[in-house]
UniProtKB/TrEMBL annotation:
The keyword S-adenosyl-L-methionine does not apply. It is a multi-pass membrane protein. Signal peptide: none annotated. It comes from the Eukaryota. Residues 459-468 have a biased composition (Basic and acidic residues). This is MFS general substrate transporter. GO terms for molecular function: pantothenate transmembrane transporter activity. It is found in: Membrane. GO terms for cellular component: plasma membrane. GO terms for biological process: pantothenate import across plasma membrane.
Length: 480
């Protein structure tokens, strides 16, 4: 009879001993690195808002819409750099890309404390947007390179939850820094915020330098045995398309995956805008809730987001199907938005709607995993689509709240609630279309990995030697 430790390992990593050994190492290296980086991403972005209201505005002469320009500069460059960033991971070692981006991002945050004019901070934010663009989409891309369909959703969920925790904790961390560091070393507290947040990022970047395993084909992870490196490649199968050639743009632009997955993810982002524009806080203020309650009660949305993200991911992994939980998420969009449109007679109705809609943050894990499932056959298609999903999303969410959730409508955002109801309802037929195309193309053998290809790979120190044949599948392959 297996020991308690063995039963626990089987519960966490499955019954297959080679899979268990590999997953245990990945879950203690790869997953923590990306999760911590995404957590720090949330803390870093929170530092700018905290610094702004804690003295930076006056010290650097922010005027008019300068703060909005700062955020816009960041978001525009962030969105533009996502597709190039994921594409870069197909031709360069991920360890070098991520660590270089992390360190540069940290340095840009650090030198913000030395700035003396608002335009300098705006410029630094634009640069930071470029180097932090790899954080989310790049992590999704690499996670999909190591984990199988039955494993990926849960790992993507853990990664996304750390981002939600970073957003929740960011304000608390900033408040603690402001309280304890004000005046230390003759500097105002807002400057200390940037110093501390920057220093927090460096150890995680160093952890990544040691433990990022690159891609399975690189065979570069020092903590994996040769047998585990072989197994990491063999267990996921081989890709059908992997070359950057003249067919890439035709393959991508004529694929349904490139258009439908980003489109449905965009609809999801528009459906949850009432959760991201202080709508609940505006409503609570109109009902006479205290300032403390206005700050604390909305954090319940992140709690339900964590529960929904992990719960839906576990179900989709165990069933090895994303469409079923996607239908449940789509119905939740409809029900939650419909409650708000109906203008409930009691406060309880609003709380139920907001907290219920919090569970619909789950597509950040489930739908990125679904995208990885249906693009696993084509290396470049998956890289480009991964970046495009978030960039296409940003193209809409940057202006949508200005029309449907302007502060001037507070506390009654009826047109925003109606817009969320419509966009949420549109996800349901799209889920059906994607599920049909996935089933059809899987049956035809068009998508999905297949076993049996030569598993020869290049070790990390063997790439690019003079006289070698051009690297194709195993030097750059990514799998799901």
């Amino acid at each position: 009879m297996p020991s308690t430790r063995t039963r626990l390992a089987i519960g966490l990593w499955g019954p297959d001993p080679p899979d268990r050994a590999l997953l245990a190492k990945l879950d203690c290296t790869l997953l923590p690195y990306f999760s911590l980086i995404w957590f720090l991403f949330g803390v870093t972005r929170a530092s700018y808002s905290s610094a702004y209201i804690s003295g930076m505005k006056e010290a650097l002469g922010f005027e008019g819409k300068d703060y909005n320009y700062m955020n816009t500069a960041y978001l525009v460059v962030y969105a533009v750099c996502q597709m190039p960033g994921t594409s870069l991971l197909t031709v360069a070692r991920p360890k070098y890309v991520f660590v270089a981006a992390n360190v540069t991002w940290s340095v840009l945050t650090l030198i913000t404390y030395r700035m003396s004019h608002a335009w300098q901070v705006i410029l630094l934010n634009a640069l930071e947007g470029g180097f932090s663009a790899i954080a989310y989409v790049g992590a999704q891309f690499i996670l999909g390179s190591w984990y199988k369909k039955s494993e990926l959703g849960m790992r993507a969920a853990v990664f996304c939850v750390f981002g939600q925790l970073g957003t929740m904790a960011g304000s608390w961390i900033q408040a603690g820094l402001l309280a304890t560091l004000a005046g230390k070393g003759g500097m105002p507290a807002w400057k200390w915020i940037f110093i501390i947040v920057s220093v927090m990022t460096v150890p995680v970047a160093l952890f990544g330098w040691v433990f990022i395993p690159d891609l399975p084909a690189h065979r570069a992870a020092w903590y994996l045995t040769d047998e585990q490196k072989d197994h990491a490649i063999a267990r996921l199968g081989a890709v059908r398309k992997q070359a950057w050639d003249r067919t890439v743009f035709r393959r991508v632009l004529l694929s349904w995956q490139f258009w439908l997955l980003p489109f449905i993810f965009m609809l999801y982002s528009l459906s949850i805008q009432m959760l991201q524009n202080n709508v609940m806080a505006y409503w609570m203020a109109s009902r006479g809730y205290t300032t403390i309650q206005q700050n604390n009660y909305p954090t319940g949305i992140y709690a339900t987001a964590i529960v929904g993200t992990i719960g839906y991911a576990i179900i989709s992994d165990r069933r090895q199907s994303r469409w079923e939980v996607s239908v449940a998420i789509g119905l939740t969009f409809v029900v939650g938005s419909a409650i708000l449109v109906s203008s409930p007679a009691t406060d309880a109705g609003y709380f139920v709607a907001f907290y219920l809609l919090g569970t619909t943050f789950a597509p950040q894990a489930v739908w990125y995993s679904w995208m990885a499932d249906v693009t696993s056959h084509d290396f470049q298609l998956r890289a480009i689509t991964t970046g495009f999903m978030n960039s296409f999303d940003f193209a809409f969410v940057t202006w949508w709240p200005l029309i449907f959730y302007p502060a001037t409508d507070a506390p009654h955002f009826r047109k925003g609630y109606i817009a969320s109801l419509v966009t949420g309802a549109l996800t349901l037929p799209l889920v059906g279309v994607i599920a049909y195309l996935e089933k059809r193309d899987t049956a035809r053998g068009i998508i999905g990995r297949f076993p049996g290809e030569d598993q020869q790979g290049l070790r990390g120190d063997e790439q690019g030697k003079p006289g070698e044949d051009p690297v194709n599948v195993r030097a750059t392959e990514v799998d799901v």
